[in-house]
């Protein structure tokens, strides 16, 4: 057990994104690995969504989701665990906004606000991205991002961003095993 693990669990919201090596499988696998995270418990998961890439546009569309967990890990321990899951799923970090097998972003950790080089909470760009806001609102309708506003209001400002909910039928066809 990590020495800084707390006795009281804190809610945390994590965004998942993938556009390489069977993205539906990668997201499903990412959720499975998050559900197995030490000192944590998966509470809710959103539907899956297809979105256009941001920034670097000449790449495949992304599959996105958001999960809520309760964790006794500190924010920095949780971030480290997320980076380890990304590596386990084949993530290789190159340039910003590059294609990736699995991207895990810590969006919110309880009501903590943090501005460190290695960790900024709330996530600094979440309020600008429909592919984060829509699934987040699905699992926590009354969510408010500190110093930004309600997720519902922020989502309305992203109305020009393309987002498609993926059917449960398509999701259920994806096996959960390694390649």
Automatic annotation (TrEMBL):
The protein's Enzyme Commission number: 2.7.6.3
Any one biological process term the GO annotation gives: tetrahydrofolate biosynthetic process
Keyword Phosphoprotein part of the UniProt annotation: no
GO MF annotation list: 2-amino-4-hydroxy-6-hydroxymethyldihydropteridine diphosphokinase activity; ATP binding; kinase activity
Gene3D superfamilies linked to this entry: 7,8-Dihydro-6-hydroxymethylpterin-pyrophosphokinase HPPK
InterPro entries per UniProt: Hppk, Hppk_sf
UniProt enzyme class: transferase
Role noted for this protein: Catalyzes the transfer of pyrophosphate from adenosine triphosphate (ATP) to 6-hydroxymethyl-7,8-dihydropterin, an enzymatic step in folate biosynthesis pathway.
Descriptive protein name: 2-amino-4-hydroxy-6-hydroxymethyldihydropteridine pyrophosphokinase
């Amino acid at each position: 057990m990590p020495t800084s693990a707390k006795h009281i669990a804190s809610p945390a919201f994590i965004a998942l994104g993938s556009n390489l090596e069977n993205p539906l499988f990668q997201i499903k696998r990412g959720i499975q690995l998050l559900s197995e995270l030490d000192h944590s418990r998966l509470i809710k998961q959103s539907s899956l969504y297809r979105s256009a890439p941001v920034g670097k546009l000449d790449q495949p569309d992304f599959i996105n989701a958001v999960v809520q967990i309760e964790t006794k890990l500190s924010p920095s321990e949780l971030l480290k665990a997320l980076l380890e899951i990304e590596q386990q799923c084949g993530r290789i970090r190159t340039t910003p906004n590059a294609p990736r097998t699995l991207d895990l972003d810590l969006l919110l950790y309880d009501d903590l606000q943090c501005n460190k080089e290695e960790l900024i909470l709330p996530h600094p760009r979440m309020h600008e991205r429909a592919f984060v806001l829509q699934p987040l609102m699905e699992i926590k309708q009354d969510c408010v991002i500190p110093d930004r506003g309600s997720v519902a209001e922020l989502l309305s400002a992203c109305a020009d961003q393309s987002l498609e909910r993926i059917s449960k039928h398509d999701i259920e066809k994806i096996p959960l095993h390694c390649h």
